[in-house]
Amino acid sequence: MRVPRGSITGIVGENGAGKSTLMSILYGFYHADAGEIRIDGRKVDIADSKDAIAAGIGMVHQHFMLVETFSVLENVMLGAEGAATLAAGAESTRAELARLDREYGLRVDPDAIVGDLPVGDQQRVEILKALCRGAEILILDEPTGVLTPQETDQLFRILATLRARGTTILLITHKLREIMAATDLVFVMRGGEVVAERKTAETSAEELAELMVGRKVRFAVEKAARTRGEALLTARDLGVVDERGVRTLDGASFELRAGEIVGVAGVSGNGQSELLDVLSGIRAPTSGTLRVLGRDIDAEHPCGPETMRALGLAHIPEDRHRLGMVGAFTAAESAILGYQRDPAYCGTLLIDNAEVARRAGLLMERFDVRPRAPGLRSAAFSGGNQQKLILARELAREPRIVLAGQPTRGLDIGAIEFVHRRLIERRDAGAAVLLVSAELDEILSLADRILVMFGGRIVGDMPAAEADERKLGLLMANIRSEAA
Amino acid sequence: MSAGASGLPRWADIGLLPLINVALALAAAGLIVLAIGESPLNAIRIMVLGALGSPEGIGYTLYYATNFVFTGLAVAVAFHAGLFNIGGEGQAYIGGLGIGLALLALDRFLPFVLLLPLGLLLSMGFGAAWAFVPAYLQAHRGSHVVITTIMFNFLAAALMVYLLVNVFIAPGSMTPESRKFADAAALPMAHDLLAAIGFKVPSTPLNLSLGVAALACVAVWAFLWHTPWGYELRVVGQSEKAAIYAGIRPKRIVIGAMCLSGGLAGLVGLNEIMGVHHRLFLNFVAGAGFTGIAVSLMGRNHPVGIVLAALLFGAIQQGGAELSFDVPSITREMVVVIQGLMILFSGALAYMARPFLEGLFALRGEPSA
After folding, report:
1. For B269-284, what is the mean pLDDT?
2. pTM of the entire predicted model
């Protein structure tokens, strides 16, 4: 793989294709078993991140490596304080920041506390951090996952400026749209190998997708038409004000009907998580009413997750590692999380562990969880199999309402198809499915009806047949209100 | 393949590693013994013989181990709920107060068969109540339980001094201790029980509390791994978010786990007050609450491990006493040093030898792989 100086090069590939491993080797987190790295034709040996910095490589991680309670200046200085007292380092860093602001228009207030900055600015701090250490090669790992479309555009403008000044940029992503928009050159990775190299101007998103997966991709999912049934869940003016006093969910009104999949589109952090929390009973609404399978819920009459489950509502949580299962528990133990008092194995006093394990084995077989080892620690399973285990637990009881939060995030194509099939299966069996996803393609292909969330409000509600990417994208960015 | 994430076979992880740690601690202690001019080998011989070489030594070892089992289980239960209960010392002290109050009030009126359940109930109840306040503060106010339980140890100590000096002191006595209980209020001693079935053993403080400790181990094991409450407690300990997702209320679990933990620690009172001394007096817990932390750590918070670790610490306590008696230049404080080293190596440095051991196993595994 050869990357020319002063270019923006994209690296695309599915999860597990080896993109992140490759970058980790470049940045010295891992050591390569074979092969070599050359910078400017000179062979370099990168054993740790110090070597990488010395070689002029800077990295902006997907999850920011910032100390939130420190100021921008302190964060940029971190690891490069210079002397025993901070004053000298602070002065030179401040001057350096001012220079970068002049040259690249990277404006951030050096004395602002990082935790108070919007996400886009925090990312800028990461970039500044790398540049302050003299990075000439900048690696960005999935930089747009947390950004709004506007922030993404801004980022790409910054990258273009950097390129103009001779910085080499490596952009890792799985979003083809961004590759097409921002890069000059693109490498496609699959199964740990670079399978193709293309000039961006000479390729298309379709071709790249095909190269990524290794076969023709069908974005459409097969599903039969279904008539909408009765309303199983009705929300009226649902609102949440969180502990900090921020209104994270604002006047949400909608219905979930039997036999339909309702997709919730939106940039993450616009109230989708709070919506799931309220619907699943994890959080009580602070205003509005909710009717779930005949039960009325409002701020005075909350209803916990255990009661919701008893009513027939299943919840596939967004954060499957921390919510959906307990990593240190065995798969069998994780497979009863939330259902630990089911009389099928829980008597008045004791849990029948043998029965729990037996049932977990059956579930794992039905939902093809590999390896089929109920006694193995949950954390030892791969992401896809963990999600299958959660799916098995939540769907095997044939719930009438399914809440699915980002159910395919971080999964490979095979597991994604599996999850999709199971969700459609539930819908065809007459359940109502609420699908929250950051992937527009997923929502467009699965949902019968689509809600769009922005700033805690539902700003769009339309049948899937009337929706397309452009329309949803405008709603997600709330373009109408911006124009006003 | 069965090595799991640790890179060590399970038996090496839970069996070999602790043994290595104990050996390291003994080696370090040996160096200190050498430095004060005594023979380490002789010291170890005296300790082992003193703790395990005679029926009397074994009796004392088991008697000390009984306390450590109670406090070790107390730490373990809280630990599984994600809480670090440092307050075993105070909870045991107040548990003893509970049992003492009951016996002072009722020892002349009730028979033993009623006093025993009453004693169990009150030692656990008082210990639990002493743990409840920090637990409530943790659950509802976010005051860290480590800080509050430490403070409650001091509160318990001060309260007991006050009560013994001003309230319970026997009339005409100069020492701050209560009157002796009636004979009906004494737990049967092990040597009396053994004599009844024909074994003559020397008299030791070992008493029926040992049986209670054994039952407590089984009960804690069953509770943690075989009941829905234990399951929920462990979920909270692993991930509060997962617990909320599963419809479990972490605040309730935190309070429940701490009360159970305090109750178990309170059983030290059963052993010391009802079992051995038959009166209330100052400082009868004598550090067992703190030793329980090391016992639980070393026993990997599992009842089986706790029993083994408690036996080890019991043996050190007893063997150490013999040692300081037999070798005058090795003082009581020296024994505390050995205990401290034991805690250092099996608690704080528990995984120090691990990379080395993993390396060994990797070497051994390679040719066959």
Report:
1. 93
2. 0.80
The beta-strand segments (E) located in A395-456 are 401-405, 432-436, 449-454
Q: Which one of A1-15, B76-90, B347-361 scores highest in mean pLDDT?
A: B76-90
| Cβ neighbours for B24, distance < 8 A, ≥ 6 positions apart | B345, B349, B352, B353
What order do you get walking across the sheet with A137-141 strand by strand? A57-60, A137-141, A168-173, A8-13, A185-190, A193-199
Give the start-to-end residue ranges of the domains of chain A: 8-213, 231-483
Q: What is the CATH number of domain A8-213?
A: 3.40.50.300
Residue A80's alpha-carbon distances to A86, A455, A476, in angstroms, are 10, 38, 40
Distance CA B369, CA B366 (A): 5
What average pLDDT values come out for chain A (484 residues) when binned by 10 residues? 79 73 79 77 79 84 82 81 70 83 79 81 84 84 73 84 86 80 85 82 80 63 75 92 83 92 86 92 92 91 92 92 90 94 90 94 92 90 89 93 89 82 92 90 89 90 85 75 41
3-state secondary structure labels for all residues of A19-58: HHHHHHHHCCCCCCCCCCEEECCEEECCCCHHHHHHCCEE
Q: What is the ipTM of this complex?
A: 0.82
CB A220 within 8 A of CB A243: no
Residue of A nearest to B1 (CA): A376
**Contact residues on chain A for B226, CB-CB shorter than 8 A:** 350-351, 353
- Which chain A residues touch B227 with a CB distance below 8 Å? 349-351
CA distance A56 to A137: 6
What tokens appear for B220 in the block?
């804690």
Coil vs helix vs strand at B285: coil
Distance from CA of B155 to the nearest CA of A (A): 34
**Residue A60 near residue A119 (C-beta atoms within 8 A):** no
Q: Give yes or no for A319 touching B (CB within 8 A).
A: yes
CATH of domain A231-483: 3.40.50.300
